[in-house]
Amino acid sequence: MSTISKSRDLSLEEINAFGAELDALRKETMATLGKKEADYIYGVRNFVRYTDIAGRSSLMLGWLPPFWLAGTALLGVSKIVENMELGHNVMHGQYDWMNDASLRGNTYEWDTVCTADNWRHTHNYMHHTYTNVREMDHDIGYGLLRLFPEQKWEPRFLANPLMAAILAVTFEWTLALQSLELEKLVSKEKTFAQVRQELIPIFAKMRKQFTKDYIFFPLIAGPMFLPVITGNFTANLIRNFWTFSIIFCGHFTEDAETFPIEVLENESRGQWYLRQLRGSSNLTGGKVMHYMSGNLSHQIEHHMFPDVPGMRYAEMSVKVREICERYGQHYNTGSFPKQFSTVVKRIFKYALPFGTKVEAVADSVVAKAAEIVPMSKSRLPSFISRLAA
Fold first, then answer.
1. Which backbone phi and psi does 181 adopt, to 5 degrees?
2. Could you read off the pLDDT of 137-155 as tens digits, one per residue?
3. With helix as H, strand as E and coil as C, how does 364-386 read?
4. For residue 355, what pLDDT band results from cuts at 50, 70 and 90?
């Protein structure tokens, strides 16, 4: 692997003990779920409904700039919270224990163009099962970007920055098409007939969402047609960029790691936890930051405990971090500006082909050094560490 991990190598006994402590934390947390969590998610749902109503109502008076700005902002916030704190978390089954049919993870449908069924497969199953495992986790670059040196460079990756910008503003549409894995058409692993069949439910959901935001509400606004349609469009842009930013900060920061497919062979529970930890990044911030990110600012805890209500991640993070420190494991966290800047750096860095050669040389140097003088990765000479970083 081209990136030297900041985490200490653990013995098999330590790995098992690490996993056991995290299992115990999950069990302890799940045993205390009750009224507080139920009231919270009902409050989130009410917040989404009321901000949606307030935002769309304000846009009906959108010819006045303050109403347009307020309406757009409220609608954008409503869409963000619905997708991240409500939809995403509910579809993980975080509230299945409540036995409320409207909050059941396997039937909930969210307010975005990506179908819930496709999301449950590409995200809940593929991404969370094979987190940051190359050749398995399609979220690594979404088939569009080169974000790690282990990805083979192709001329199309010179457009990394441009493609990332397009992805940021069209994120919901990209996610809607992600399950198609269109790159398999090129490799002939899929046929056009298969893709056409898979597009049927996707187009149906796209049509529904497009009709709501760009036909129905603008039409009933009458003379306010233009302020409403531009407000809806801008609110969707806000939601797309924010979602893109949170997800990329959770997976593609400077210290995030990817893994070869071989790690899946006989992977223990403790090794699975280590993979979730090393492939994830957290964001520091206050209650508003955590709420607006759907508590995915605690991406480490989410990857470790995807079915635990997100509102509990903040308190769990204190214990997770303490456990990581005791076992010498790097707990990747930082402010939004810090983490996002490393994401941008990664996007530009791996657009270029020379990165592959530089890192291949660094890997060779590291391997030779380890043969001559056995030592842990963390104790390698600093100049070698910098070469391989």
1. 45, 60
2. 999 999 899 999 988 899 9
3. HHHHHHHHHCCCCHHHCCHHHHH
4. low
Average pLDDT over residues 9-34: 97
Inter-CA distances, 82 with 73, 132, 293, 361, Å: 14, 26, 11, 47
> In the chain, where are the structural domains located?
38-133+157-174+201-246, 357-388
Crossing angle of helices 336-349/225-251, nearest 10°? 80
* Beta bridge partners of residue 282, listed in sequence order: 333
Residue 259's DSSP bridge partners are: 133
The pLDDT value given to residue 388: 31
- Among residues 40, 4, 79, which one has the least CA distance to residue 239? 79
Rounded to an integer, what distance in angstroms lies between the CA atom of residue 370 and that of residue 377?
8
d(CA 229, CA 236): 11
Nearest-Å Rg of the Cα atoms of the chain is 22
3-state secondary structure the chain: CCCCCCCCCCCHHHHHHHHHHHHHHHHHHHCCCCHHHHHHHHHHHHHHHHHHHHHHHHHCCCCCHHHHHHHHHHHHHHHHHHHHHHHHHHHCCCCHHHCCHHHCCCCCCCCCCCCHHHHHHHHHHHHHHCCCECCCCCCCHHHCCCCCCCCCCCHHHHHHHHHHHHHHHCHHHHHHHHCCCCHHHHCCCCCHHHHHHHHHHHHHHHHHHHHHHHHHHHHHCHHHHHHHHHHHHHHHHHHHHHHHHHHHHHHCCCCCCCECHHHHCCCCHHHHHHHHHHCCCEECCCHHHHHHCCCHHHHHHHHHCCCCCHHHHHHHHHHHHHHHHHCCCCCCEECHHHHHHHHHHHHHHCCCCHHHHHHHHHHHHHHHHHHHCCCCHHHCCHHHHHHHC
Tokens 């149906």 found at: 204
What tens digit of pLDDT does each residue of 227-262 get?
Answer: 999 999 999 999 999 999 999 999 999 999 999 999
pTM of the entire structure? 0.87
Tokens found for residue 378: 């963390």
Between CA 119 and CA 126, with CA 124 as vertex, the angle to 5 degrees is 95
Name the β-bridge partners of 283: 334
Please report the pLDDT score of residue 130 as a whole number: 95
The per-residue pLDDT of the chain, averaged, comes to 90
